[in-house]
Amino acid sequence: MAAIGIDYGTSNSEVVFFNGEGHQHIKLDPHVENSNKIRSSIFIYYEDDLPTPPASMVEAKVSQIQRSISEQLDKAKQGYYDAQDPKEQEVFSQRIDSLRGQFHDKPALQRRAIQLLLKDMTVQELSLQQLVESGKFAFGEEGFRRFLKTPEKGRLIYSPKNFLGASLEESQQQAFVGMIGKQLSYFKQCAEQQLGQRVTTAVIGRPVRFHGTRGEEGNHQAINIMRQAAALAGFDDVSFLEEPIAAAYKIEQTLEQQTTALVVDIGGGTTDIGCINLDPLKVQELERRIDVLSVSGKRLGGMECDKNLVIKAIAPHLGQNLTMQNGLPVPPTYFSDMCAVDDIPKLTRFFTPEYGLDIAQTMSITKNPKTLERLLIIQEEKLSARVVNSARMAKELLSSKESITLPLHYIEPDFDVAIDIDLLHRSMRSWLSKVISLIDECLEGSSKMPEVLMITGGMSLSPIVRKAIYAELFAELPLLENDAFNSVCEGLAIQASKLSSVGVKS
Ligand SMILES: Nc1ncnc2c1ncn2[C@@H]1O[C@H](COP(=O)(O)OP(=O)(O)OP(=O)(O)O)[C@@H](O)[C@H]1O
Ligand SMILES: [Mg+2]
Fold it and tell me: Which ligand 1 atom lies nearest to the CA of residue 395?
Protein backbone atom coordinates (compact mmCIF):
# COMPACT_ATOMS: atom_id res chain seq x y z
CA MET A 1 0.00 0.00 0.00
CA ALA A 2 1.36 3.36 -1.01
CA ALA A 3 1.13 6.94 0.23
CA ILE A 4 1.23 9.82 -2.22
CA GLY A 5 1.59 13.58 -2.18
CA ILE A 6 -1.13 15.57 -3.92
CA ASP A 7 -0.55 19.18 -4.84
CA TYR A 8 -4.12 20.25 -5.48
CA GLY A 9 -3.36 23.59 -7.10
CA THR A 10 -5.50 26.47 -8.23
CA SER A 11 -4.17 26.23 -11.79
CA ASN A 12 -2.49 22.83 -11.94
CA SER A 13 -2.49 19.67 -9.87
CA GLU A 14 0.17 17.04 -9.43
CA VAL A 15 0.63 13.66 -7.79
CA VAL A 16 4.02 12.32 -6.70
CA PHE A 17 5.19 9.14 -4.96
CA PHE A 18 8.48 9.04 -2.99
CA ASN A 19 10.01 5.65 -2.29
CA GLY A 20 12.62 6.92 0.15
CA GLU A 21 15.19 7.52 -2.57
CA GLY A 22 13.56 8.96 -5.64
CA HIS A 23 10.38 10.62 -6.79
CA GLN A 24 7.91 9.12 -9.25
CA HIS A 25 5.63 11.63 -10.91
CA ILE A 26 2.24 10.26 -11.81
CA LYS A 27 1.10 11.09 -15.31
CA LEU A 28 -2.35 12.59 -15.00
CA ASP A 29 -3.12 14.09 -18.38
CA PRO A 30 -2.79 11.84 -21.42
CA HIS A 31 -3.34 14.87 -23.68
CA VAL A 32 -0.19 16.66 -22.56
CA GLU A 33 3.09 15.07 -23.50
CA ASN A 34 5.94 14.88 -20.99
CA SER A 35 3.98 16.69 -18.37
CA ASN A 36 3.36 15.67 -14.79
CA LYS A 37 0.71 18.23 -14.13
CA ILE A 38 -2.92 18.53 -15.09
CA ARG A 39 -5.10 21.61 -15.32
CA SER A 40 -7.24 21.79 -12.19
CA SER A 41 -10.30 23.03 -14.07
CA ILE A 42 -13.29 20.69 -14.50
CA PHE A 43 -15.83 20.72 -17.28
CA ILE A 44 -19.18 19.22 -16.24
CA TYR A 45 -21.31 18.62 -19.28
CA TYR A 46 -24.24 16.84 -20.91
CA GLU A 47 -23.86 14.98 -24.16
CA ASP A 48 -27.60 14.94 -24.90
CA ASP A 49 -30.55 16.20 -22.92
CA LEU A 50 -30.32 18.12 -19.69
CA PRO A 51 -31.48 16.28 -16.55
CA THR A 52 -35.10 16.40 -15.40
CA PRO A 53 -35.63 19.65 -13.50
CA PRO A 54 -36.07 19.33 -9.71
CA ALA A 55 -39.55 18.40 -8.39
CA SER A 56 -40.12 21.87 -6.91
CA MET A 57 -39.58 23.49 -10.33
CA VAL A 58 -41.86 20.97 -12.02
CA GLU A 59 -44.60 21.54 -9.43
CA ALA A 60 -44.36 25.32 -9.87
CA LYS A 61 -44.70 24.89 -13.64
CA VAL A 62 -47.66 22.50 -13.17
CA SER A 63 -49.41 25.16 -11.06
CA GLN A 64 -48.71 27.73 -13.76
CA ILE A 65 -50.22 25.47 -16.44
CA GLN A 66 -53.22 24.78 -14.19
CA ARG A 67 -53.78 28.52 -13.74
CA SER A 68 -53.83 28.95 -17.49
CA ILE A 69 -56.29 26.00 -17.82
CA SER A 70 -58.49 27.62 -15.13
CA GLU A 71 -58.61 30.84 -17.11
CA GLN A 72 -59.62 28.92 -20.24
CA LEU A 73 -62.23 27.06 -18.17
CA ASP A 74 -63.73 30.35 -16.98
CA LYS A 75 -63.94 31.55 -20.57
CA ALA A 76 -65.50 28.26 -21.70
CA LYS A 77 -68.11 28.47 -18.90
CA GLN A 78 -68.92 32.03 -19.90
CA GLY A 79 -69.30 30.82 -23.51
CA TYR A 80 -71.64 28.08 -22.31
CA TYR A 81 -73.87 30.60 -20.49
CA ASP A 82 -73.81 33.06 -23.41
CA ALA A 83 -74.46 30.39 -26.07
CA GLN A 84 -77.25 31.21 -28.51
CA ASP A 85 -78.41 27.67 -29.19
CA PRO A 86 -78.04 24.11 -27.80
CA LYS A 87 -75.53 23.18 -30.53
CA GLU A 88 -73.21 25.97 -29.52
CA GLN A 89 -73.80 25.05 -25.87
CA GLU A 90 -72.76 21.47 -26.62
CA VAL A 91 -69.44 22.67 -28.10
CA PHE A 92 -68.67 24.63 -24.92
CA SER A 93 -69.80 21.74 -22.75
CA GLN A 94 -67.32 19.42 -24.47
CA ARG A 95 -64.59 22.03 -24.13
CA ILE A 96 -65.31 22.34 -20.39
CA ASP A 97 -65.09 18.54 -19.96
CA SER A 98 -61.84 18.41 -21.87
CA LEU A 99 -60.29 21.26 -19.85
CA ARG A 100 -61.42 19.67 -16.56
CA GLY A 101 -59.80 16.44 -17.69
CA GLN A 102 -56.54 18.26 -18.47
CA PHE A 103 -56.67 20.11 -15.14
CA HIS A 104 -56.79 16.88 -13.16
CA ASP A 105 -54.47 14.71 -15.28
CA LYS A 106 -51.38 15.11 -13.05
CA PRO A 107 -49.00 12.80 -14.98
CA ALA A 108 -49.77 14.56 -18.28
CA LEU A 109 -49.38 17.96 -16.61
CA GLN A 110 -45.99 16.94 -15.21
CA ARG A 111 -44.80 15.67 -18.60
CA ARG A 112 -45.84 18.92 -20.22
CA ALA A 113 -44.19 20.96 -17.42
CA ILE A 114 -40.89 19.08 -17.88
CA GLN A 115 -41.06 19.59 -21.65
CA LEU A 116 -41.62 23.31 -21.25
CA LEU A 117 -38.90 23.69 -18.63
CA LEU A 118 -36.34 21.81 -20.72
CA LYS A 119 -37.16 23.87 -23.81
CA ASP A 120 -36.19 27.08 -22.02
CA MET A 121 -33.47 25.76 -19.73
CA THR A 122 -29.75 26.10 -20.33
CA VAL A 123 -26.92 24.41 -18.46
CA GLN A 124 -26.09 27.74 -16.83
CA GLU A 125 -29.37 27.65 -14.93
CA LEU A 126 -28.73 24.31 -13.29
CA SER A 127 -27.51 24.47 -9.71
CA LEU A 128 -23.99 23.30 -9.02
CA GLN A 129 -25.39 20.36 -7.09
CA GLN A 130 -27.61 19.24 -9.99
CA LEU A 131 -24.65 19.49 -12.33
CA VAL A 132 -22.46 17.38 -10.06
CA GLU A 133 -25.21 14.79 -9.55
CA SER A 134 -26.19 14.32 -13.18
CA GLY A 135 -23.45 15.71 -15.46
CA LYS A 136 -20.44 14.00 -17.00
CA PHE A 137 -16.97 15.03 -15.90
CA ALA A 138 -14.02 15.90 -18.10
CA PHE A 139 -10.70 16.80 -16.49
CA GLY A 140 -7.54 18.56 -17.66
CA GLU A 141 -6.96 19.32 -21.33
CA GLU A 142 -9.86 17.14 -22.45
CA GLY A 143 -12.25 19.18 -20.32
CA PHE A 144 -10.83 22.50 -21.43
CA ARG A 145 -10.99 21.50 -25.10
CA ARG A 146 -14.59 20.35 -24.72
CA PHE A 147 -15.39 23.67 -23.05
CA LEU A 148 -13.81 25.62 -25.95
CA LYS A 149 -15.67 23.53 -28.53
CA THR A 150 -19.10 23.30 -26.91
CA PRO A 151 -19.34 25.80 -24.04
CA GLU A 152 -23.15 25.65 -24.14
CA LYS A 153 -23.12 21.92 -23.28
CA GLY A 154 -21.74 22.35 -19.80
CA ARG A 155 -20.09 24.49 -17.18
CA LEU A 156 -16.39 25.02 -16.64
CA ILE A 157 -15.28 25.28 -13.03
CA TYR A 158 -12.11 27.16 -13.81
CA SER A 159 -10.53 26.54 -10.47
CA PRO A 160 -12.41 24.57 -7.79
CA LYS A 161 -9.77 25.30 -5.12
CA ASN A 162 -10.53 29.01 -5.38
CA PHE A 163 -14.02 28.51 -3.97
CA LEU A 164 -13.26 26.26 -1.02
CA GLY A 165 -12.82 28.97 1.58
CA ALA A 166 -15.60 31.22 0.23
CA SER A 167 -18.97 31.60 1.85
CA LEU A 168 -20.82 28.54 0.54
CA GLU A 169 -24.22 27.14 1.42
CA GLU A 170 -24.33 23.53 2.63
CA SER A 171 -25.58 22.28 -0.76
CA GLN A 172 -22.76 24.12 -2.54
CA GLN A 173 -20.21 22.64 -0.15
CA GLN A 174 -21.56 19.18 -0.94
CA ALA A 175 -21.35 19.96 -4.66
CA PHE A 176 -17.64 20.75 -4.25
CA VAL A 177 -17.15 17.57 -2.18
CA GLY A 178 -18.72 15.57 -5.04
CA MET A 179 -16.78 17.36 -7.75
CA ILE A 180 -13.35 17.23 -6.06
CA GLY A 181 -14.07 13.68 -4.88
CA LYS A 182 -14.33 12.63 -8.55
CA GLN A 183 -11.12 14.45 -9.39
CA LEU A 184 -9.19 12.89 -6.47
CA SER A 185 -10.58 9.50 -7.33
CA TYR A 186 -9.22 9.92 -10.87
CA PHE A 187 -5.80 10.90 -9.45
CA LYS A 188 -5.86 7.86 -7.14
CA GLN A 189 -6.73 5.57 -10.02
CA CYS A 190 -3.86 6.94 -12.16
CA ALA A 191 -1.44 6.50 -9.23
CA GLU A 192 -2.59 2.93 -8.56
CA GLN A 193 -2.22 1.96 -12.21
CA GLN A 194 1.23 3.49 -12.55
CA LEU A 195 2.57 2.34 -9.18
CA GLY A 196 1.05 -1.13 -9.46
CA GLN A 197 -0.23 -1.04 -5.88
CA ARG A 198 -3.12 0.27 -3.82
CA VAL A 199 -2.91 3.86 -2.68
CA THR A 200 -4.57 4.48 0.66
CA THR A 201 -2.83 7.51 2.13
CA ALA A 202 -2.41 11.04 0.83
CA VAL A 203 -0.72 14.18 2.06
CA ILE A 204 -2.48 17.08 0.39
CA GLY A 205 -0.94 20.54 0.12
CA ARG A 206 -2.84 23.48 1.52
CA PRO A 207 -2.36 27.23 1.30
CA VAL A 208 -1.76 29.09 4.53
CA ARG A 209 -5.05 30.94 3.94
CA PHE A 210 -7.68 29.69 1.54
CA HIS A 211 -9.73 32.87 1.49
CA GLY A 212 -9.11 36.58 1.61
CA THR A 213 -11.50 37.63 4.35
CA ARG A 214 -12.88 34.53 6.07
CA GLY A 215 -9.76 33.62 8.06
CA GLU A 216 -9.94 30.42 10.11
CA GLU A 217 -13.62 29.91 9.25
CA GLY A 218 -12.70 29.73 5.53
CA ASN A 219 -9.73 27.46 6.24
CA HIS A 220 -11.85 25.14 8.34
CA GLN A 221 -14.51 24.84 5.64
CA ALA A 222 -11.94 24.28 2.89
CA ILE A 223 -10.12 21.52 4.80
CA ASN A 224 -13.46 19.93 5.64
CA ILE A 225 -14.48 19.83 1.98
CA MET A 226 -11.10 18.40 0.94
CA ARG A 227 -11.22 15.79 3.72
CA GLN A 228 -14.70 14.63 2.71
CA ALA A 229 -13.72 14.63 -0.98
CA ALA A 230 -10.66 12.48 -0.22
CA ALA A 231 -12.81 10.03 1.77
CA LEU A 232 -15.27 9.88 -1.13
CA ALA A 233 -12.36 9.14 -3.47
CA GLY A 234 -11.45 6.16 -1.28
CA PHE A 235 -8.45 7.39 0.70
CA ASP A 236 -8.27 5.92 4.22
CA ASP A 237 -5.84 8.47 5.64
CA VAL A 238 -5.36 12.05 4.60
CA SER A 239 -3.39 14.84 6.15
CA PHE A 240 -2.57 18.36 5.08
CA LEU A 241 0.67 20.29 4.91
CA GLU A 242 1.23 23.97 4.12
CA GLU A 243 2.55 24.27 0.58
CA PRO A 244 5.72 26.32 1.35
CA ILE A 245 6.65 23.91 4.15
CA ALA A 246 6.33 21.01 1.72
CA ALA A 247 8.61 22.82 -0.75
CA ALA A 248 11.11 23.35 2.06
CA TYR A 249 11.13 19.59 2.84
CA LYS A 250 12.05 18.91 -0.76
CA ILE A 251 14.95 21.32 -0.76
CA GLU A 252 16.10 20.07 2.65
CA GLN A 253 17.04 16.78 0.99
CA THR A 254 19.70 18.60 -1.03
CA LEU A 255 21.26 20.56 1.84
CA GLU A 256 24.59 19.74 3.45
CA GLN A 257 24.16 21.80 6.58
CA GLN A 258 21.56 23.35 8.81
CA THR A 259 20.11 26.66 7.59
CA THR A 260 17.07 28.92 7.91
CA ALA A 261 15.14 29.29 4.66
CA LEU A 262 12.57 31.77 3.49
CA VAL A 263 10.30 29.93 1.04
CA VAL A 264 8.06 32.00 -1.21
CA ASP A 265 5.56 29.93 -3.20
CA ILE A 266 3.64 32.01 -5.72
CA GLY A 267 1.08 29.88 -7.49
CA GLY A 268 -2.01 30.54 -9.55
CA GLY A 269 -4.35 31.30 -6.67
CA THR A 270 -2.33 32.12 -3.58
CA THR A 271 1.05 33.30 -2.40
CA ASP A 272 2.30 31.28 0.57
CA ILE A 273 5.40 32.02 2.55
CA GLY A 274 7.23 30.14 5.23
CA CYS A 275 10.36 30.74 7.27
CA ILE A 276 11.73 27.40 8.46
CA ASN A 277 14.79 25.85 10.04
CA LEU A 278 16.10 23.12 7.76
CA ASP A 279 18.49 20.42 8.80
CA PRO A 280 19.73 17.49 6.68
CA LEU A 281 19.85 15.41 9.86
CA LYS A 282 16.11 15.83 10.33
CA VAL A 283 14.89 14.70 6.91
CA GLN A 284 13.36 11.56 8.40
CA GLU A 285 11.48 13.34 11.17
CA LEU A 286 7.74 13.46 10.75
CA GLU A 287 6.82 16.20 13.19
CA ARG A 288 8.62 19.45 12.39
CA ARG A 289 6.28 22.08 13.83
CA ILE A 290 9.05 23.35 16.09
CA ASP A 291 11.17 24.21 13.04
CA VAL A 292 8.48 26.26 11.34
CA LEU A 293 9.25 29.79 12.55
CA SER A 294 6.53 31.66 10.73
CA VAL A 295 4.06 31.42 7.85
CA SER A 296 1.99 33.96 5.96
CA GLY A 297 -0.27 33.68 2.97
CA LYS A 298 -2.92 35.40 0.95
CA ARG A 299 -5.23 34.85 -1.97
CA LEU A 300 -2.85 36.59 -4.26
CA GLY A 301 -1.64 34.45 -7.11
CA GLY A 302 -1.11 34.46 -10.84
CA MET A 303 -4.83 34.60 -11.62
CA GLU A 304 -4.95 38.01 -9.96
CA CYS A 305 -2.17 39.10 -12.33
CA ASP A 306 -4.09 37.69 -15.30
CA LYS A 307 -7.17 39.66 -14.36
CA ASN A 308 -5.11 42.82 -13.82
CA LEU A 309 -3.54 42.32 -17.24
CA VAL A 310 -6.99 41.98 -18.82
CA ILE A 311 -7.96 45.33 -17.26
CA LYS A 312 -4.72 47.11 -18.24
CA ALA A 313 -4.03 45.61 -21.67
CA ILE A 314 -7.23 44.14 -23.13
CA ALA A 315 -10.10 46.16 -21.62
CA PRO A 316 -8.97 49.41 -23.35
CA HIS A 317 -9.76 47.60 -26.62
CA LEU A 318 -13.19 46.56 -25.32
CA GLY A 319 -14.49 50.06 -24.78
CA GLN A 320 -13.03 50.72 -21.32
CA ASN A 321 -11.94 54.28 -22.13
CA LEU A 322 -15.09 55.39 -23.93
CA THR A 323 -17.29 58.14 -22.58
CA MET A 324 -21.05 58.22 -22.69
CA GLN A 325 -23.01 61.18 -24.10
CA ASN A 326 -23.35 62.64 -20.60
CA GLY A 327 -19.56 62.85 -20.37
CA LEU A 328 -19.22 60.04 -17.84
CA PRO A 329 -17.00 57.02 -18.55
CA VAL A 330 -18.49 53.65 -19.44
CA PRO A 331 -19.04 51.83 -16.08
CA PRO A 332 -15.64 50.38 -15.07
CA THR A 333 -17.43 47.55 -13.23
CA TYR A 334 -18.29 46.04 -16.65
CA PHE A 335 -14.67 44.99 -16.98
CA SER A 336 -14.09 43.74 -13.45
CA ASP A 337 -17.37 41.78 -13.68
CA MET A 338 -16.25 40.33 -17.01
CA CYS A 339 -13.07 38.97 -15.37
CA ALA A 340 -14.78 37.46 -12.32
CA VAL A 341 -13.99 33.85 -13.23
CA ASP A 342 -13.37 33.03 -9.56
CA ASP A 343 -16.60 34.59 -8.30
CA ILE A 344 -19.58 32.47 -9.41
CA PRO A 345 -22.37 34.91 -8.34
CA LYS A 346 -20.64 37.87 -9.99
CA LEU A 347 -19.94 35.99 -13.20
CA THR A 348 -23.45 34.52 -13.31
CA ARG A 349 -24.84 38.06 -13.03
CA PHE A 350 -22.52 39.22 -15.82
CA PHE A 351 -23.90 36.48 -18.08
CA THR A 352 -27.59 37.35 -17.53
CA PRO A 353 -29.60 38.79 -20.46
CA GLU A 354 -30.31 41.88 -18.29
CA TYR A 355 -26.59 42.60 -18.05
CA GLY A 356 -26.32 42.29 -21.84
CA LEU A 357 -29.21 44.71 -22.20
CA ASP A 358 -27.43 47.14 -19.90
CA ILE A 359 -24.29 47.04 -22.07
CA ALA A 360 -26.41 47.44 -25.22
CA GLN A 361 -28.14 50.47 -23.67
CA THR A 362 -24.78 51.98 -22.75
CA MET A 363 -23.68 51.43 -26.34
CA SER A 364 -26.67 53.42 -27.56
CA ILE A 365 -25.60 56.46 -25.51
CA THR A 366 -21.86 56.16 -26.18
CA LYS A 367 -19.97 57.99 -28.89
CA ASN A 368 -18.30 55.52 -31.30
CA PRO A 369 -19.33 52.42 -29.37
CA LYS A 370 -17.62 50.04 -31.83
CA THR A 371 -15.09 48.62 -29.35
CA LEU A 372 -17.77 48.16 -26.67
CA GLU A 373 -19.45 45.72 -29.04
CA ARG A 374 -16.59 43.33 -28.28
CA LEU A 375 -17.54 43.39 -24.60
CA LEU A 376 -21.10 42.53 -25.60
CA ILE A 377 -19.82 39.56 -27.60
CA ILE A 378 -17.83 38.34 -24.58
CA GLN A 379 -20.97 38.74 -22.45
CA GLU A 380 -23.34 37.07 -24.90
CA GLU A 381 -21.03 34.21 -25.81
CA LYS A 382 -19.80 33.74 -22.22
CA LEU A 383 -16.15 34.13 -23.14
CA SER A 384 -14.80 35.39 -19.79
CA ALA A 385 -12.74 32.30 -19.00
CA ARG A 386 -11.18 32.44 -22.48
CA VAL A 387 -10.22 36.09 -22.08
CA VAL A 388 -8.59 35.50 -18.69
CA ASN A 389 -6.86 32.44 -20.13
CA SER A 390 -5.52 34.54 -23.02
CA ALA A 391 -4.10 37.04 -20.52
CA ARG A 392 -2.45 34.14 -18.67
CA MET A 393 -0.81 33.00 -21.91
CA ALA A 394 0.37 36.54 -22.63
CA LYS A 395 1.87 36.84 -19.14
CA GLU A 396 3.69 33.52 -19.51
CA LEU A 397 5.04 34.39 -22.98
CA LEU A 398 6.31 37.70 -21.66
CA SER A 399 8.59 35.79 -19.30
CA SER A 400 10.80 35.06 -22.30
CA LYS A 401 9.90 37.83 -24.77
CA GLU A 402 9.94 41.62 -24.70
CA SER A 403 6.64 42.00 -26.53
CA ILE A 404 3.92 39.84 -28.05
CA THR A 405 0.82 40.07 -30.22
CA LEU A 406 -2.07 38.33 -28.52
CA PRO A 407 -4.67 36.93 -30.94
CA LEU A 408 -8.25 37.31 -29.70
CA HIS A 409 -9.95 36.08 -32.86
CA TYR A 410 -12.65 34.26 -30.91
CA ILE A 411 -14.01 37.71 -30.07
CA GLU A 412 -13.64 39.27 -33.53
CA PRO A 413 -11.76 38.14 -36.65
CA ASP A 414 -8.31 39.79 -36.87
CA PHE A 415 -8.60 41.22 -33.34
CA ASP A 416 -5.03 41.26 -32.02
CA VAL A 417 -3.69 43.10 -29.00
CA ALA A 418 -0.05 44.12 -28.65
CA ILE A 419 1.36 43.76 -25.12
CA ASP A 420 4.91 44.49 -24.03
CA ILE A 421 6.83 43.78 -20.87
CA ASP A 422 6.43 47.38 -19.62
CA LEU A 423 2.67 47.12 -19.77
CA LEU A 424 2.78 43.78 -17.96
CA HIS A 425 5.07 45.30 -15.33
CA ARG A 426 2.70 48.24 -14.80
CA SER A 427 -0.26 45.86 -14.45
CA MET A 428 1.68 43.90 -11.79
CA ARG A 429 2.85 46.80 -9.62
CA SER A 430 0.18 46.79 -6.93
CA TRP A 431 0.15 42.97 -6.90
CA LEU A 432 3.91 42.91 -6.35
CA SER A 433 3.72 45.35 -3.47
CA LYS A 434 1.12 43.08 -1.82
CA VAL A 435 3.44 40.08 -2.25
CA ILE A 436 6.24 42.08 -0.62
CA SER A 437 3.99 43.04 2.32
CA LEU A 438 3.27 39.34 2.79
CA ILE A 439 6.99 38.60 2.89
CA ASP A 440 7.40 41.35 5.52
CA GLU A 441 4.56 39.80 7.54
CA CYS A 442 6.30 36.43 7.52
CA LEU A 443 9.65 37.94 8.51
CA GLU A 444 8.05 39.93 11.33
CA GLY A 445 6.56 36.72 12.72
CA SER A 446 9.85 34.84 12.60
CA SER A 447 12.29 34.73 15.51
CA LYS A 448 15.19 34.28 13.09
CA MET A 449 16.14 35.97 9.84
CA PRO A 450 16.56 33.72 6.78
CA GLU A 451 19.96 32.67 5.56
CA VAL A 452 18.77 31.35 2.18
CA LEU A 453 15.91 32.19 -0.15
CA MET A 454 13.77 29.86 -2.22
CA ILE A 455 11.20 31.15 -4.69
CA THR A 456 8.89 28.56 -6.18
CA GLY A 457 5.48 28.15 -7.85
CA GLY A 458 4.69 28.97 -11.48
CA MET A 459 4.84 32.74 -10.95
CA SER A 460 8.47 32.43 -9.83
CA LEU A 461 9.29 31.93 -13.52
CA SER A 462 8.42 35.56 -14.19
CA PRO A 463 11.58 37.70 -14.41
CA ILE A 464 9.51 40.60 -13.03
CA VAL A 465 8.77 38.59 -9.89
CA ARG A 466 12.33 37.33 -9.50
CA LYS A 467 13.73 40.83 -9.87
CA ALA A 468 11.29 42.36 -7.37
CA ILE A 469 11.85 39.68 -4.73
CA TYR A 470 15.38 38.53 -5.23
CA ALA A 471 17.36 41.35 -6.83
CA GLU A 472 15.58 44.15 -4.99
CA LEU A 473 14.96 42.57 -1.59
CA PHE A 474 17.33 39.73 -0.83
CA ALA A 475 20.23 40.07 -3.25
CA GLU A 476 22.67 39.19 -0.44
CA LEU A 477 21.02 35.80 0.29
CA PRO A 478 21.94 32.64 -1.61
CA LEU A 479 19.07 31.60 -3.87
CA LEU A 480 18.11 27.93 -3.71
CA GLU A 481 17.41 26.91 -7.28
CA ASN A 482 14.44 24.55 -7.52
CA ASP A 483 11.76 23.30 -9.83
CA ALA A 484 8.96 25.91 -9.88
CA PHE A 485 6.21 23.37 -10.51
CA ASN A 486 7.39 20.25 -8.72
CA SER A 487 8.97 21.30 -5.43
CA VAL A 488 5.72 21.48 -3.44
CA CYS A 489 4.44 18.10 -4.58
CA GLU A 490 7.79 16.38 -4.18
CA GLY A 491 7.86 17.69 -0.60
CA LEU A 492 4.33 16.41 0.00
CA ALA A 493 5.41 13.01 -1.31
CA ILE A 494 8.35 13.02 1.14
CA GLN A 495 5.94 13.69 4.01
CA ALA A 496 3.62 10.94 2.72
CA SER A 497 6.48 8.48 2.65
CA LYS A 498 7.47 9.40 6.22
CA LEU A 499 3.87 8.85 7.29
CA SER A 500 3.62 5.45 5.67
CA SER A 501 6.97 4.30 7.04
CA VAL A 502 5.99 5.07 10.64
CA GLY A 503 2.45 3.85 9.99
CA VAL A 504 1.02 6.91 11.69
CA LYS A 505 -2.58 7.73 11.20
CA SER A 506 -3.06 11.50 11.31
N1 LIG B 1 6.69 30.94 -17.57
C2 LIG B 1 5.85 31.54 -16.72
N3 LIG B 1 5.94 32.86 -16.47
C4 LIG B 1 5.11 33.49 -15.64
N5 LIG B 1 4.12 32.87 -15.00
C6 LIG B 1 3.97 31.56 -15.19
C7 LIG B 1 4.82 30.82 -16.05
N8 LIG B 1 4.41 29.53 -16.06
C9 LIG B 1 3.35 29.47 -15.24
N10 LIG B 1 3.08 30.69 -14.72
C11 LIG B 1 1.97 31.05 -13.82
O12 LIG B 1 2.05 30.32 -12.62
C13 LIG B 1 0.75 30.12 -12.10
C14 LIG B 1 0.55 28.67 -11.81
O15 LIG B 1 1.52 28.28 -10.90
P16 LIG B 1 1.38 26.92 -10.11
O17 LIG B 1 1.20 25.80 -11.04
O18 LIG B 1 2.52 26.89 -9.16
O19 LIG B 1 0.01 27.24 -9.34
P20 LIG B 1 -0.90 26.27 -8.51
O21 LIG B 1 -0.03 25.40 -7.69
O22 LIG B 1 -1.87 25.64 -9.41
O23 LIG B 1 -1.70 27.32 -7.61
P24 LIG B 1 -1.77 27.50 -6.04
O25 LIG B 1 -0.51 26.96 -5.46
O26 LIG B 1 -1.88 28.97 -5.85
O27 LIG B 1 -2.99 26.80 -5.63
C28 LIG B 1 -0.24 30.60 -13.15
O29 LIG B 1 -0.71 31.88 -12.82
C30 LIG B 1 0.64 30.64 -14.40
O31 LIG B 1 0.17 31.58 -15.33
MG1 LIG C 1 0.85 25.56 -5.83
Answer: 4
